[in-house]
Amino acid sequence: MAPMATGTLDTWIHSEQSNTSKKRKSNNTDDNHTPPKRSKRDLTPEPSSTSVAKPSPDSKQATTAASPTLKVIEENGDLFAAPPNTLLIHACNCTGSWSAGIAQAFKLHYPSAYQTYSNHCKATDPEDLIGTAQLIPPQADSTSKHFVGCLFTSRHYGRRKDSPAKILEATGPAMRDLLRLVGEFNAGVSGDAEGVGEVWMCRVNSGLFRVPWSKTRGVLEGIEVGVGDVEGVRVVALEEG
Hints:
By secondary structure, this protein is an alpha/beta fold. The protein has a domain at 72-237: 3-Layer(aba) Sandwich (Leucine Aminopeptidase, subunit E, domain 1). It has helices at residues 6-27, 40-43, 57-63, 101-109, 111-122, 126-129, 164-187, 213-221, and strands at 71-76, 87-93, 133-136, 147-154, 199-201, 232-237. The protein has a 6-stranded mixed β-sheet, with helices on both faces. Helix 8 links the parallel strand 5 (199-201) and strand 6. Residues 1-66 are annotated as: Disordered.
């Protein structure tokens, strides 16, 4: 092979050195004045490994379980034939009168209980009585040894009775108050004394107060009960026919 001319060799060496310098320059990021563009995906921050997961709807429902409510069991029979130490409940006015309907039957069976109720009404303003209750233990003249429970659901009676809406509004608080009184009474029983056993009631508000029983029952079944409270009531009514 013929020797390469000196000029040609020098030209080739100079060309290679120039190309190497350009490559080094392009690879040096410090010399680049325009930063490379980044995609939107590159700009999205990575999720933190310490982030807390949100609770699922199922776990939330499990922590907010509904409390048990009062059970209402209906049957036909004689309310006043309940066993001893049973609590018998009826709805009352706040003026001290048991002159008609189921209230009159309570007055005939438990005259001393009626007097206790009447005295309580005379000593208390109707506005303070409405939505409360009275628990009357068995009296000396009661051979059946029944407790009597009064739910103050109407301020007056007859033509002056409260509207069905107001009566229903007072029924829930009155029943809760009576259940509270039962719990307190039973907690204080000692010695040979006996507390409240079963709990019976008539179809409260459905007689002379003219409130549909289904509406009152709905109110009663919505009352929450706790541990140790009365869990249910037996609604006893004479068989229709």
